[in-house]
Write a structure and sequence with these properties.
about 110 residues, mainly alpha, 5 helices
Length: about 110
């Protein structure tokens, strides 16, 4: 992404609002669109990819792409967390799993970049 917001008080307030909105939109996608917690993840991944492509090829730069990506990731995170809960997976399993996934993504990013 070309334009990222400045990290200041407005950023942290916006991040909190985006997180709350993403949590609620995660429940909306799973419940009201009737796709379930796992069923919505492929659509959210496609939406995230579309946001990244739009940000890359857009002639106008905007931080709205950044916030749209944050909301989409937060929506997916809610559904992933709810999926762990649906399958009765305890925190002692899901937290190390998510941590390992995060570490692998950081290593992959460092390798690609």
């Amino acid at each position: 992404m070309r334009d990222l917001p400045s990290v200041n008080a407005k950023y942290w307030l916006s991040l909190g609002a985006a997180s709350i909105f993403g949590t609620n939109s995660g429940d909306f996608v799973a419940g009201y669109l009737h796709v379930g917690h796992l069923g919505g993840l492929p659509y959210l991944a496609l939406l995230f990819g579309a946001i990244l492509l739009a940000a890359r090829f857009s002639e106008q730069s905007s931080v709205l792409y950044f916030w749209a990506a944050i909301i989409t990731v937060r929506t997916a995170a809610t559904n992933v967390g709810d999926t762990f809960h649906d399958f009765h997976i305890p925190y002692s399993v899901c937290i190390p799993f998510v941590l390992a996934l995060f570490a692998a993504s950081v290593l992959l990013y460092k390798r690609v970049a």
